[in-house]
Amino acid sequence: MLGWMRNFIDNYTHGMYFPKIQIMDIIEILIITVIVYEIMLWIKNTKAWMLLRGIIMLGVFILVAWIFQMHTILFLAAQSINVLAIAAVVVFQPELRRALEKLGEKNILNSINPFDKNRDNERFSDETADSIVRACYEMGSVCTGALIVVEQAIRLNEYEMTGIELDCKVSSQVLINIFEHNTPLHDGAVIIRGDRITSATCYLPLSDNMSISKDLGTRHRAALGMSEVCDALVIVVSEETGLVSAAMGGRLTRGIKREELREMLSQIQYRKSEQKRFTIRKGWRRR
Questions:
Q1: Whole-prediction pTM value?
Q2: DAC domain spans which residues (predicted)?
Q3: Among 4, 13, 24, 261, which has the highest number of CB atoms less than 10 A from its own CB?
Q4: What is the CA 187 to chain-centroid distance, rounded?
């Protein structure tokens, strides 16, 4: 029986080449798989998906031109490739920058990057989180508009430069006073790093997402736009309704409760490498 099976395998595999697979080949395949997976996620979650669709359509058009030997079209396409590549880099510069920033957030890089070691003491305390929540809902009760950015891994230095430097400890009284009507600092956003307010009256990028509700004002569009270009948690207090909303990762959650906002702050309070020491709480509800 064994001899018959051996002859059967030899007959059907005769002349076939089976490469010798080594451990480095497996590691290389895994690395390429992860890279391709990350690229596909980036394409799916950004405007690059529209670019990919356009490239596919252009490729089909060029294939048809090649089949029917349309020499002029093929010549123009060959001459335009370099120009289109440079144009794509310019047009999608924000998305490419975001992709590189996401790469820098990975734990494998943070663990070997000596320049990130001083970031450990910049995670905010429970007192800071409670102060942010208290200030937001006290301002919401009297319909005082507010825009608060809580920094995470990505530095927001370029946005801090658009405002006024404060460098003061976070407290509910300070936040309420900043956003009080007719005060010099009430217009714009506040940026919080660790337990300190770094800047006020900061300008944030507005979202160009056409699917968001038309009744959203500039604060909400700025919060959503900021969450699209960085990993920060952006909190908005509506001046019209007093409702508290939060944006993170390009998603805006409107009308959240006090407990939900506190839960959001708890989930970003510690670095990813430290979260294993703490209980992972249930995610917040989206409306």
A1: 0.61
A2: 93-258
A3: 261
A4: 25
Segments of the chain assigned E as strands: 146-150, 164-169, 189-193, 196-202, 233-237, 244-248, 251-253
Average pLDDT over residues 74-103: 74
Using CA atoms, how far apart are residues 218 and 201, in angstroms rounded to an integer? 14
DSSP string, 103-127: HHHSHHHHTT-GGGGGGGGGSPPHH
Q: Where are the domains of the chain?
A: 22-112, 120-277
For residue 155, give the 3-state DSSP assignment: coil
∠ CA 136-142-148, nearest 5°, is: 25
- pLDDT exceeds 90 at position 212: no
Structure tokens, 78: 């060959």
- Are 193 and 118 within 8 A, CB to CB? no
Fold of the CATH domain 120-277 = YojJ-like (1 (3.40.1700)
